[in-house]
Amino acid sequence: MRRLRLVLVGFLLGIIIVAGAVVWHLDTAISSAFEGRRWDVPAHVYAQPLELYAGRSLTADALENALRQLGYRKQRRADAPGTYARSRSAVELVTRSFRFWDGEAPAAGAFVRFANGRIARLSDQAERSDLAILRLEPLLVGSLFPGVVEDRMVAGPDEVPELLRQALLAVEDRRFEDHSGLDFRGIARAAWVNIKSGEVQQGGSTLTQQLVKSYFLSNERTLRRKITEAVMALLLERRYSKPELLNAYINEVYLGQDGPRAIHGFEMASRYHFGRPLQELEPQQLAILVAMVRGPSYYDPRRQAERARTRRNRVLDALVESGAITREDADAGKKREFGLAEKPVRGASYFPAFMALVRRQLQRDFSNEDLSQAGLQIFTTLDPLVQARAEQALSTRISRLEAQVGEGLEGAVVVTSTDGAEVLAAVGGRDPAFAGFNRVLDARRPVGSLLKPLVYLAALESGRYHLATLVNDAPLVIADESGEDWAPRNYDQQFLGEMPLVRALAESRNLPAVRVGMATGLERVTAVMRKFGWQSETRAYPSLLLGAVPMSPFEVAQLYNTLASAGAYTPLKAVRFVHDESGEPVNRYPLALRQVSASTDVTQINAGLLTAMRRGTGRSARSRLPEGLEVAGKTGTTDELRDSWFAGFSGEHLAVVWVGRDDNQPAGLSGAAGALAVWSDLFAQLPTRSLQLDLDDALRVAWINYQTGLESDPECGDTVPVPLPSSAEPGFQPGCEPGSRRGLERALKWLKDKIG
Amino acid sequence: MKRLRTSLLMSVGLILAGCASLAGPGPTEPVADRGKETPAKAPVAEQLPTVKATERSPAVDALLAQARAQRATGSYEQAAVSVERALRIDARSAALWLELAQIRFDQGEFEAAQQFAEKARRLAGVDETLATEAERVLRAVAAELS
With an 8 Å Cβ cutoff, are A745 and B31 in contact? Predict the structure, then answer.
């Protein structure tokens, strides 16, 4: 008998220990999963606000798109904040009030007239007096948690309409406030109803259980899973208060799919379906969202309108029953149309690659404690218009390229404003809403010819070279890092002999770059890279000169932004300001620059890159760009056509594009065929200023022969204009001395006119 | 007489034409490029794009005026924010970079003031007033930094 009792006790103890271990394990899982997900302290992340002013390149369509993204309602007249009216070439609007970093801007009415792709006039609504400038409220693009990676739209407790809470309780979990995680009465009743009707009609799960289920997203419906979820629900209730749980639920519950991206939470669902913030929804719209909790696709208001309507109405009834709204309001709501956005607002507020940049910048300057203040407002540099165009250019062009070279291509794009060094757009892959591998930051690839401008800049800085200096495109053998012989070749396997430096750069010849780089000194080249913003260790090997250095598109953008701003180094930034809830500044990232290379030297290199676009390896872009738009840029192709790079800029914007394959197999595309095509598509659409070269007193413009580098009359022979140091004297092209031809040709022309 | 003159002129013309073709441009080498076969000769006498004066913008004027007012009352960061906002509209305005230099100078940030004043000077171009003003700031900065 005694032994039996001992065995029983031992057995019970064993069960208790095992159960305890399981519970402990589940508790750990919950705390780690919910830790940092403090739904009451979302930091709101905003794009840069759209500024309206006379002269700005903007179309009425573009403005209307921006307003729709912001959730403005289109009406006959704009008579309230958040509304607009549209005629063919004019938009009338009333902005919403918004607390910017420099103070509260009240709601303001305005009339915007467009002509020739620009804002022709900005005035008050009555068109009486002009307005100098008007700032729309910035687009909310995401939320951040201190310790956790999250790009979701989140509603803080005071952004959740009370009616939504009441609807959830009324419909999903009437005894939410009272139970401790499981609702046994509910379970029993559901079982009874289901048995009676012979089918599963009711769930009986509490909101807490649904929260657990929604969070640990797998759809197993085994008994074991149900027990696990039940235990976790109980544990959750012990850890968190009712309001916290409800907030978590509101922001976690699965409410459908936006392509590959799951829609979690009512704020996201509100913007996706209705294009408006949760706070602006009507009761019947809230009811539709609550209806979708039971089955987002089953009750999809777009595809299953009848079902959605029936269920919506039942939710409205439940609200009446619980006393949250009156019978009259409910009936009025039932008569309303859904009010869905014309098209689902796809990826309108989902920029994972850009958010990664934001996080990186903030983590540099803030600890997690700093960031966990409630209600932080983060104002970024993202330009939704540029982002949309960049995403479009990349995905469309990659599809087309795949038709030629086969499937499996990927890409990345970064766009910056050159003088401000602000990141306007970041596209991490051809499917931008898919938060997978962020190629902007994390795809490090050898950059090939992209380093040549810096190699030649080092040469110019040494004082021994300028654009007309003859360099030799001839074979060379040198020792590489392991002491082996290295005989670099050109892409076309040819050697073209002596040529002016400008041509070697524009046509991306390999041998001149190696010769000049070695003569100038590898340390000088790495020094230029570092002062232009390159932060990793670089070993000074000869192959560096041909770009055997892996870099991310973001790192390339930093280097080229310094070139584009004529040698002024500014760290690229994704965040402008951080404020706390009451508008108190937490941090500002002011404009700062440091001239790290003489603008005289950089301007010469940029002239070389301009030549590359006019007649060098980048010339295929010309036909795609608007007439008169001057740009500069560099193609980059790596061994066996593995990587296709292009980095190019106008007078206002820089974009770096990479196209290739994630598995590092050859993409089969040169820099011009792949990345440049994407870049051209983008710049064909982007309102941007033409490149202007700063020619100061230390430079003079000379026309030199493209083959010999000797100075020529512009119209004699194959010439290019280049900025040279004032003291440079390249010598003269025989028969083409400046001024010599003009007299002769003028006479000839006169004769032709007389005779012919 | 007329016929003689014409034949003389024609002969001269022929001789000149002959000379012209002798000293003419050599054949241009097509650039061996990745994929494109078009010949690489540039359009005749295409100039380098150099700096053009930008149009006055009421928005920039308003923001600059606001910045100056803010600086006058000692709200330096606010003033800088106004200037930065204007620079996003027109980054080539020497007046804006100069104002930024002035703000930083007033704040005692002389290195920054120097960088901005240099930029303003470069962009001032033919505008004597701005160039002179930029140089004045640079001298003041040099005095502080020495």
Answer: no
B11 in contact with A, Cβ within 8 Å = no
Neighbours of A220 (CB within 10 A): 11
Within 13 Å of residue A652, how many CA atoms lie on the same side as its CB? Answer: 16
A615 to B31: CB separation less than 8 angstroms, yes or no: yes
Looking at the DSSP assignment, which residues form a beta bridge with residue A115? A118
Q: What is the mean pLDDT of residues A168-174?
A: 87
Which of these, A422, A415, A420, A413, lies nearest to A379 by C-alpha position? Answer: A422
Identify which of A226-235, A455-464, A635-644, B29-38 has the greatest average pLDDT. A455-464
Closest CA to B113 of B98, B132, B127: B98
Average pLDDT of the segment spanning B92-116: 96
End-to-end CA distance of chain B: 83
C-beta separation of A637 from A491 below 8 A = yes
Cα–Cα separations (whole angstroms), residue A596 to A62, A209, A457, A530, A537: 38, 59, 12, 10, 19
Measured between beta carbons, which residues in chain B are less than 8 angstroms from residue A51? 59, 85, 88-89
Q: What is the spatial distance between Cα A110 and Cα A104, in angstroms, rounded to a whole number? A: 18
Neighbours of A98 (CB within 10 A): 16
A520 interface with B at CB cutoff 8 Å: no
How many H-runs (helices) and E-runs (strands) does chain B carry? 6, 0
Q: Which residues of A are catalytic?
A: 172, 449
Nearest CB among B10, B20, B119 relative to A568 is that of: B119
Dihedrals φ, ψ of B82, to 5°? Answer: -60, -45
Mean predicted lDDT score pLDDT of chain A: 88
Is some CB atom of chain B closer than 8 A to the CB atom of A691? yes
Residue A193 CB-density burial (10 A; 0-12 exposed, 13-18 middle, 19+ buried): middle
**Residue B35 pLDDT greater than 50, yes or no:** no
Nearest CA in chain B to A701: B48
A706 in Cβ contact with A503 (< 8 Å): yes
Contact list in A for residue B122 (CB cut-off 8 A) is: 566, 599, 694, 696
Least confident segment among A43-47, A124-128, A214-218, B18-22 = B18-22
Amino acid (one-letter) located at A603: T
**Chain A CB within 8 Å of residue B72 CB:** no
**Interface contact flag, A51 B62, Cβ < 8 Å:** no
